[in-house]
Amino acid sequence: MSLLINIIFDFSCPYCYLAWGYTRKLQERIPFEVDWTTWEIHPDLPKKGRNIYEVVPGVNLEEWCYKLNALGAPVDLIPGNKVFVPNTRSALETAEFARENQKLQEWVDAVFQSSFVENRDIGDIDVLLDLAEDIGLNCDKLQRTLKMDYYGKVLLANDQTCVERQIEWVPTIYVGENKILEGAFTFSDFEKAVRKFF
Fold it and tell me: Which domains does the chain have, with CATH numbers?
């Protein structure tokens, strides 16, 4: 049975985007599976999103971008150039819809690519529907579930679990009950942490 790592994440988080890139790179070297647990870290964001300066007051954007891009360099990611923070609730709810339709990884791949590479607003339902159609999800059914807030209960349950486990950062990475990494870390840190289970 392949090793399974669990990543608690939100699509708005550049460090989660890095973790996504790290998993893809490391899977080229060693076999493991990834399960993604959705956690909405900015539930107060308006639908239209906000500029990073409004979300993180006083941020030194030049320094922040430099550090993020340095972390992304080993896996050819540039996460630091994004200054818009989208509302991710619908994208996270769609992740749960995709999970039920055996397309979670495809959804995670599509959303991170769309947000951080193509700089699209993943808080925009039309963008999400385009992505959903691209990976073969039933868009009519998806729209109905989003209007009903059908997966809101899943996001709430995940939030409660994170609070109970005293999780403070995304990404937080587990193997079984073992928390192996959280927050900002390098690809080397990630590889060393995962290889301990082989």
Answer: 3-195 (3.40.30.10)
